[in-house]
Design goal:
By secondary structure, the protein is mostly helical. It is built from 22 helices and 2 strands. Strands 1-2 form a two-stranded antiparallel ribbon. Helix 1 packs antiparallel against helix 10 and helix 13 runs parallel beside helix 19.
């Protein structure tokens, strides 16, 4: 093992367990910051543009944040393996809060976009480092018990974000969409600073800056292709083709660089671990299929059933609560048995069934029936994502937990981007052929109230066309989940480390299994070096 910064020993006393719980609460707050900021801005965007202008740049308020967060994920993960996580995590929180404060004070849309990029830079570290620290302080076998709380954070953010964004924009000012992060972040920073042990290393490892730049460029090109393709530029345009070629060239150069770098930003040895390969591919496919449900079901609810934007968000609650419940149950069963493969297998099977059921929805399907279909899908999804994160952390060497966790988050993000682009293109193509003559797709940009005020014949024609287009979207998404199921069947199950059962036979030295510091590193007392 290299002299990578090590993690704190696994808690064994009541006092240390209480400290872990307090630290875990701080990590949950950090995860809340990152996940809430992805949802809270959307409902305030019209108000922001009304105040600052620049509607032609509106999409970049979201895109700049997403790009900055995604491209920095590998760097945050690898740097935490080399230098320790506490100070980097504190730095990520500070960067995020500075970006939030500046975004709230922005006087033009250009300023807001720049400050959102800074905010995204911090966000890239928040989720990756929080999940890596969870892996440091809680053994894989016990980690399942905490998964339900992590999933509940995502549920709360997905529901509360759009509601809070609308409330702030309507009753206070849109600037509070960003200012609300400051007190939450301050509490998270205080908790982490006072409870998380500081890890140091005697060596001075070198960051692979060239590798980081190459992978960041490749990811940026991929994300721009999925963001712009079919929307701002045609898929066959010079811009999109050029970006695709650049992505491939940068990826090839990145692999060549990683082969010779002494401290690679993404060690290629990880791809020689079958668990890492299977989990990464499965997370990509799972998130791709997940976005078909969470992005396009609200469209069905608003245009076909006439639900308001707020109501359509609330109608997704059964999916989120079902996912949280199944995550909690599967986590407890994992902690009891030390086994996990059965959960993503069953989960992806249920996701496939759920998407097939969603593909049967038409203009006569009730909201109750839609909610039941979403519950089936949500129960399945809850057994996949968090479980596979534990699997990948359990399989890799402790020195690579940060970069492995970052890679899992990266493949999730790429799966989401590709999913939105893929299903968006399918929806647009199917819609063009289904809309009644004389009605363009621009009519879908009207609010649900405006659509309800249209003549009955026009309204029904639009609803029928949208329902048919979404049937195709969900019917294509179901095989994507099935491919994920086929991939996860290849997963080699490594028994989870931790109390309650014997460690796997191929594990490292006992001191390493217990979470002892790596050679050449030391752990300071809790709260030291704040």
């Amino acid at each position: 093992m290299t002299a990578a910064a090590a993690s704190a020993p696994e808690p064994t006393t009541a006092t240390s367990r209480r400290q872990v719980l307090v630290t875990f609460s701080g990590l949950l707050l950090a995860m809340l910051l990152a996940s809430l900021d992805q949802t809270i801005v959307s409902t305030a965007l019209p108000t922001i543009v009304g105040d600052l202008g620049g509607i032609d740049q509106l999409s970049w308020v979201v895109t700049a944040y997403m790009l900055a967060a995604t491209v920095t994920i590998p760097l945050w993960g690898r740097a935490s393996d080399l230098f320790g996580r506490k100070r980097l995590f504190q730095g990520a929180i500070v960067v995020f809060l500075v970006g939030s404060a500046l975004s709230g004070m922005a006087q033009s849309l250009t300023e807001l976009i720049a400050f959102r990029a800074l905010q995204g830079l911090g966000a890239g570290g928040l989720m990756t480092l929080a999940m890596a620290i969870v892996a440091d302080i809680i053994s894989p076998r016990e980690r399942g018990r905490y998964q339900g709380y992590i999933q509940m954070v995502f549920v709360f953010a997905s529901v509360a974000g759009p509601l809070f964004g609308g409330l702030f924009a309507d009753h206070l000012t849109w600037r509070w969409v960003f200012y609300v992060n400051l007190p939450i972040g301050a509490v998270a920073l205080t908790v982490i600073s006072t409870t998380l042990p500081l890890t140091t290393t005697d060596r001075r490892p070198r960051i692979d800056w060239l590798g980081a730049a190459l992978v960041a460029g490749a990811i940026t090109a991929v994300l721009l292709v999925t963001t712009w393709g079919g929307r701002q530029y045609a898929w066959t345009s010079a811009e999109i083709v050029g970006l695709a070629v650049a992505a491939v060239a940068l990826l090839v150069a990145f692999v060549a660089q990683e082969r010779r770098a002494p401290e690679p930003i993404l060690p290629l040895r990880l791809f020689r671990e079958p668990v890492f390969d299977v989990v990464s591919a499965t997370l990509f496919l799972t998130t791709c299929a997940f976005f078909a449900a969470v992005v396009f079901t609200p469209l069905y609810l608003q245009i076909v059933t006439g639900a308001s934007a707020t109501a359509s968000g609330l109608l997704l609650l059964p999916l989120m609560l079902a996912a949280a419940a199944s995550t909690a149950v599967s986590g407890r069963l994992m902690a009891r048995t030390g086994r996990y493969k059965r959960f993503p297998v069953a989960g992806l099977a249920l996701m496939s069934v759920g998407l097939f059921l969603l593909s049967r929805m038409d203009t006569d399907t009730s909201r109750v029936t839609t909610s039941l279909f979403l519950v089936v899908f949500g129960v399945g999804f809850g057994m996949v994502s968090q479980v596979l994160t534990v699997a990948i952390q359990n399989a890799v060497d402790r020195r690579d937990i940060g970069v492995a966790t970052g890679s899992a988050n990266l493949f999730r993000a790429l799966g989401g981007s590709v999913g939105v682009a893929l299903f968006g293109a399918i929806f647009a193509a199917r819609l063009d052929s289904s809309l009644p003559r004389g009605i363009s797709a621009d009519a879908l940009q009207a609010s649900p109230e405006t659509l309800r005020a249209m003549p009955a014949g026009v309204r029904d024609g639009i609803a029928e066309a949208v329902a048919h287009a979404l049937q195709t979207v969900f019917m294509v998404a179901a095989p994507v989940a099935l491919v994920g199921l086929a991939v996860v069947l290849l997963l080699r199950e490594v028994p989870l480390r931790g109390p309650g059962g014997p460690p796997p036979k191929d594990e490292g030295p006992p001191a390493e299994r217990a979470g002892a510091p790596a050679s050449g590193s030391r752990v300071a007392t809790a709260g030291a070096g704040r």
